[in-house]
Amino acid sequence: MPKIATREAYGEALAELGEEIKDIVVLDADLSKSTKTSVFAKKFPERFFNMGIAEQNLMGTAAGLATCGKIPFASTFAVFATGRAFEQIRNSICYPNLNVKIAASHAGITVGEDGATHQSVEDIAIMRSLPNMTIIAPADAVETKQAVRAAAMLKGPVYLRLGRHPVEPIFDENYKFEPGKGVILKNGKDVALIATGTMVAEALKAAEMLAKDGIDAMVINIHTIKPIDKEVIMQAAECGAIVTAEEHSIVGGLGSAVAEVLAEEKPTPMKRIGLRDVFGQSGRPEELMKVYGLTAEDIAKAARSLRR
Amino acid sequence: MAITREKVEELTAIARRVRRHIIDMTSEAGSGHPGGSLSCGDILVALYFHVMKVDPQNPDWPERDRLVLSKGHAAPALYAVLAEKGYFPVEELLTLRKINSRLQGHPDMKKTPGVDMTTGSLGQGLSAANGMAIAAKLDGKDYRVYAVLGDGELQEGQVWEAAMAASHYKLDNLTAFVDHNGLQIDGPIAEVMSPEIIQDKFRAFGWNVVDVDGHDFEDIIRGIEEAVNTKGRPTVIVAKTVKGKGVPFMENQVDWHGKAPSRQQAEEALKALEQ
Where, if anywhere, are coiled coils annotated (chain A) (predicted)? Predict the structure, then answer.
């Protein structure tokens, strides 16, 4: 199976759903070729609105559309969606609990060469602090397609975190996405690897590496970071050690969310794989993953250290 | 839409009651924004009692005209008008800003019947109004959307993003009011950060511009008629108003932007607002 970027799957899913759900409208901020909303725009030009390079108005307009029964998908890069238009998302979307879907592409460090200004490594943390917001970070193209459909069906604001860089396929067409439900990809008893988005593939590779050392690792895909699946985290805690992995800062993202659950319910030794409170830099995605400690090897190493 | 002498008298009487409510509400709450509520009161009365197609018995009626109070701190004016219109009991106005009240310090569409959009953070309302106007066009519906902005609010960049988009998408079913009272928290808008010349700026963004006296019902209605008859572009009605209008000691006084009158001051204000 070829590698596909989740943003590609997003564009296709939108265009398919547009046929089925007539209330879907799509807004973009001059990035439709990158966010792939151009696929929808081509098919449904009357329901596509390019708002230009104006993210605050993008979010506010989406809010207004939602009050009239539309299901707006507001798309732009994750940095601009969550940073530039944070307060619009807070006050005009989340507080009135409006049915706006924010599809943020180019999340994480694998944006690559554009450098730190365009690498969104704090968007989960920002969105997680907002009441009413659901956060979904799909791991591959199959999951993305289903997540877009689920987002359209959910009532209320949803933040969809998508990547630019092609990722390995994890799921087949029989996969059933359930919002809010963590997915156990591999059972294990020695350590649990809990990953989200692009890091799910790395966690699976890490589990293979650990198996060679005789360590039986459980692998969990948390596609919905908020509300987080406490039940599956408690199952993971049974292993006695947990490693979280995310293409995001370790501050406020998946690792924090898991740690919060464990601290209150069942304190468990854990390590967080993610950017350690630093900005990124320009470089090829694979190079950046190595430099910032986001590879399968890094996950395996963290798991081994917890076992000792 | 033309307005008769009798109608003007009726609106004037409602507006006076609305002003009295604003004084009572803010005084009872011990906080709030009387100055800018009093300045935009007549605009809201004209809209709800002569222009807008609404049904207080059915606040969410899909065919209704919409209003976005972008200058959300003028919530007391909006609540007073909605209560007078019959959306909820007038007595409820005195719960403004109190715990568990439906009347929040700034408008909350999920709590208050008749409030079409949650606002309060300045600069965001016109974008929401755009979204509503686009939805009307998409659905082939003839409802109209009104937005009321403050003049100080024009300092927010998002207003101009929205102004550009409204013009680009030819939203002739959208009418924005600028409540031009000339004052903001820190002083005259001309001194803090001048948005002048407001008319020229909107014109440059492709809008039809009308100037009215924001305390003259015939003039306000004339402006709205021109907006309704203007096709292919949105209209902004720049309404010259007086902050604190109707209460002599509040008129044109910056201090009354965000301060509630004491009970004694309220009595004095109410006396001035008697016929």
Answer: none
